């Protein structure tokens, strides 16, 4: 599998930049940053990973739409692409 250097740099930057510049944030901004990060983690784990890749559970269209929005906010590509690469990742483990 080929590494996408642009995605690696972008995702690394958006995680490293808040750590480097934390002195310039107010506490409310830091709290918002943490809450948004937690929601994005839910989008990846509950949405892309469990719901669409492994189909561990089923849910209604409103929850799917919310999870889709959270997944898109992570900038990790489309849900379809993510699930394809994740399934390839599991096939390589076997």
What report would you give on this structure?
- The two termini are 16 Å apart.
- With 94 residues, the chain is an all-alpha fold.
- It is 74% helix and 0% strand.
- It has one domain (5-93).
- Helix 2 crosses helix 4 (79-93).
- The protein has 4 helices and no strands.
- The chain has helices at 5-20, 27-53, 61-72, 79-93.
Features:
mainly alpha, 74% helix, single chain, 94 residues, 0% strand
Shape call:
flat
Strand content: under 5%
What is the number of strand segments? Answer: 0
The rounded Rg comes to: 15 Å
Helicity level, as a percent range? over 70%
Calculate the mean pLDDT score and round it.
87
Low-confidence stretches: none
Question: Structural class given helices, strands, pairing?
Answer: mainly alpha
Order of helices and strands: HHHH
Total helices: the number is 4
Total separate domains? 1
Give the terminus-to-terminus CA distance. 16 Å
Largest sheet: none
């Amino acid at each position: 599998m080929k590494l996408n250097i642009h995605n690696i740099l972008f995702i690394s930057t958006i995680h490293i930049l808040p750590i480097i510049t934390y002195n310039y944030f107010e506490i409310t901004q830091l709290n918002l940053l943490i809450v948004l990060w937690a929601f994005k983690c839910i989008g990846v784990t509950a949405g892309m990973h469990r719901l669409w890749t492994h189909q561990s559970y089923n849910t209604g269209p409103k929850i799917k739409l919310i999870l889709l929005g959270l997944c898109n906010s992570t900038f990790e590509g489309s849900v379809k692409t993510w699930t394809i690469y994740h399934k390839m990742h599991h096939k390589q483990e076997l």
